[in-house]
Design a protein that fits this description.
single chain; 260 residues; mainly alpha
């Protein structure tokens, strides 16, 4: 029996993980289906756009700028070992657009927005505001989940595009002011190197990462336990799940776009 105990524990953990995965998939499908069915709550949608998009711009911009600058320094130092310092513009551009831009924005959104959504909805559940919505014949999924998921699907790709540009600009500033690159040549090399597939993959990743972040926040908020401890646990679990799923989705999407 002692030998079988770890296997039993592993089996219970696996079944629990599969059950949660199924619940999340059903929840996401229900949330997306409510996006296309009236009634629509335009005010909630606009508030979500403002909260997820506009108010996330400062943290996204600062993160992308410093990452682009650090990336330029790293590529220059690494390239010097092979006398390949001239590739800094190209590698900064492709690194930011294909990987760092979407992933950093996704993780920033998971940290800032997912936690906020989960805490807000969990607090509403604890204080029985969600029960009040049901009493008023308002579907919680339609009022709380659909506007937030739709806003994230639309606005996070825009944030990713802005993050890509600011990250490339950070690399441009460091390269031209500190590393001695010619500004005109740097811009020309960056523009000539990027392809449409690079930009498309970046925007698609942003859309999916936004959907993951909003869905995880809504799901764990709805599943919150009672009391302050339940709200805290829901917030923590939502951010952990969103971050892991974003990184896993990034791997799968990169395989799909660039495996050949």
């Amino acid at each position: 029996m002692v030998v079988l105990a770890p296997l039993a524990h592993l089996g219970r953990a696996t079944l629990s993980l599969l059950a949660i995965t199924g619940q999340v998939i059903i929840f996401a499908a229900q949330g997306i289906s409510h996006i296309f069915r009236p009634p629509f709550y335009g005010r909630e949608f606009l508030n979500a756009l403002l909260h997820i998009g506009w108010l996330s711009l400062p943290v996204v911009g600062l993160t992308a700028f410093f990452t682009g600058g650090a990336l330029a320094l790293q590529i220059y130092a690494g390239g010097a070992r092979f006398s390949a310092e001239a590739v800094v513009p190209q590698i900064v551009a492709i690194g930011m657009v294909r990987e760092l831009g979407p992933v950093l924005v996704g993780l920033m959104i998971a940290a800032r927005v997912t936690s906020s959504i989960a805490a807000e909805i969990a607090t509403m559940k604890v204080t029985e505001q969600i029960d009040a919505l049901v009493t008023l014949s308002t579907h919680p999924m339609k009022y709380l989940t659909a506007p937030r998921v739709l806003a994230a699907l639309l606005v996070v790709p825009v944030l990713v595009g802005i993050g890509d540009l600011i990250g490339i600009y950070g690399g441009y500033i460091v390269s031209t002011k500190q590393l001695g690159f010619n500004p005109a040549s740097y811009i020309k090399n960056t523009a000539n190197f990027l392809e449409f597939a690079d930009i498309l993959s970046s925007l698609v990743k942003g859309c999916i990462f936004g959907g993951i972040a909003a869905t995880m926040g809504c799901y764990y908020g709805m599943q919150s336990g009672r009391g302050a401890q339940g709200v805290g646990q829901a917030t923590k679990s939502s951010v952990q799940a969103a971050a892991v799923l974003i990184l896993a989705a990034n791997f799968l999407l990169t395989s799909v776009f660039f495996s050949s």
